[in-house]
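Posted in: Structural Biology > Protein-Ligand Complexes

Title: Requesting predicted complex, flavin-adenine dinucleotide in pocket

I'd be grateful if someone could produce the 3D structure tokens for the following input. Sequence and ligand are given below.
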Amino acid sequence: MDSFDIVIIGAGPAGLFAACQAARLQARTVLLESGDEAGRKLLLTGKGRCNFTQEGLSAQNLQEAFGPKGRFLHSGLAAFGPEAIRRFFDERGLPSVVERGKRVFPARGDARSVRDLLLSEASKRGVRLLTRCPVRALAAEGGAIVAAETDSGPVRGKAFIVATGGCSYPRTGSTGDGFRWARDLAIDVVPPRPSIVPIRTAEPWSHGLNGQILKNVGLTLVRNGRRLEDRFGEMQFTPFGVSGPIAMDLSRAVGTALEKGGTVRLAIDLKPALNAEKLEARIQRDLDKLRRRPVGALLAGLLPRALISPVAQEAGLEKEKPLQGFTREERKNLVATLKELPLTPTGLLGFDWALVTAGGVSLKALDPRTLRAKAWRNLHFAGEVIDLDGPTGGYNLQICWSTAYLAGLAAARSARG
Ligand SMILES: Cc1cc2nc3c(=O)[nH]c(=O)nc-3n(C[C@H](O)[C@H](O)[C@H](O)COP(=O)(O)OP(=O)(O)OC[C@H]3O[C@@H](n4cnc5c(N)ncnc54)[C@H](O)[C@@H]3O)c2cc1C
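-- Reply #1 --
Done. Output follows.
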């Protein structure tokens, strides 16, 4: 096979975007992809609509979004942040819109339009894309990578970018190869863990509510009585526990809390718009109106039908009992249950269901301005293969754009000598 300036492994968003950047500097670039098409995971993003960045994310508010590791992204976001990727798409005929939670989507509402634009841009710049071309290993000599080993022989290059993704959704091609190669090259890899993933819960009632969606609720993670994190929005019950945006978003913290041990629980706030006092006053008004009706009628005015039995049980109420004689203690118990319906997390679903992989190539092993492995003079990493992950909302694709931008340009510059 030919020899190239830049060899990029993995044609997901990070690999495609790095290829566009490298080729922009006239580097002869090849993109090696194991699957039969580029960007299979990209096509699934944002439920097929591709939430490709988060408006307002900047080098200044990194910590909020990514925690302490966010500092690493400072150069990447300063060089190529959300505005830059929106402009990149806009200038090529793909304007975007900002939706709830500052999530940015292509106005056309179609992930395919993003994937196809990246493919067309790469092709215009002369990038050679080889699909059905799994890379088996990286060959190294004297502190540099010399070739990517494929079934059709070695692909030689002056600089290499590994953009093989993590281990999540392996059916889209990301099977953790980049982690294995990094370890083989003595580059530290933080053990990969599933993140943004459904949570298993112990309570049989929660499994029985499979499919039930709760909108505008609060979800809080509590460990040893301390409230650690909370979210507000939509969640969904599944046959094994809970999923949906706020549960998925809390999953990383839930995983960490379970690893640490102690008493870990989740609390659903079914009435986040009302504090306990206001909720109690509202219940009292309902009681005054419904005096001759059973407890179930009071609950029906407060809850979706599927939740009436679990809430009644948790609050120690009998649905059939008449409301006459509803005690102050019962009212207080009901308020407490509506504000903190408890669930016991027992674990997370695996990589098959995780939207992203936490962990990956250690940030300490990489130069944040070039994404080059410090120990190898021509090996760069981009995208999810790096130990960086964010919450839902377009943060994870922004990691791809920012890291791929720096890696693509740096690799092209180093290949030119
Ligand atoms: C269902 C779903 C929805 C999501 N929605 C969003 C969203 O709306 N917004 C957001 O910001 N993030 C979202 N994410 C996360 C986002 O998709 C990923 O963070 C992103 O795709 C990572 O890009 P990447 O290029 O690093 O890796 P990937 O997209 O995983 O691409 C890696 C590529 O490398 C190829 N590859 C792997 N090993 C080899 C090898 N040995 N040889 C050759 N090729 C190889 C793979 O086939 C694959 O094409 C979502 C994820 C999922 C699963």
